[in-house]
Amino acid sequence: MSAHHIIPLKTLLSTTFALVVLTVVTVAVFYLNIPAPFDVVVALLLASFKATLVAMFFMGLYYDEKFNTVVLVFSLLFFLVFVGITLLDTNFRDAGINVWIP
Question: What is the pLDDT of residue 63?
């Protein structure tokens, strides 16, 4: 087990500044009117990058044991697999049947 690492204030402030800048970029991308499938891709890429910064520096995974990073990555992969399996079912649902109205 590794010792507790104190993250320098300079790193925390620069990470905070990067998150603020990326938030401004996210809002600016909203007003660019990117075509339909690509706007979601750009938004998800920006959100993923911001989440990576938070996990690495605010949660301390950058300085922690790599096993904790592996656990986080695999839990996210399992979540994506389960959501993907659920979304596969949406193509086969019949929207025309309503059993609650006689």
Answer: 87
pLDDT (average), residues 86-94: 76
Q: With both helix axes pointing from N to C terminus, report the angle between 36-53 and 9-30 in degrees, rounded to the nearest 10.
A: 170
Taking 60 as the threshold, does the pLDDT of residue 1 lie above it? no
Nearest residue to 54 via CA among 26, 18, 25: 18
The full set of domain ranges for the chain reads 7-63, 65-102
DSSP string, 57-102: IIS-TTTS-HHHHHHHHHHHHHHHHHHHHHHHHGGG--TT--TT--
Q: Is the pLDDT of residue 42 over 80?
A: yes
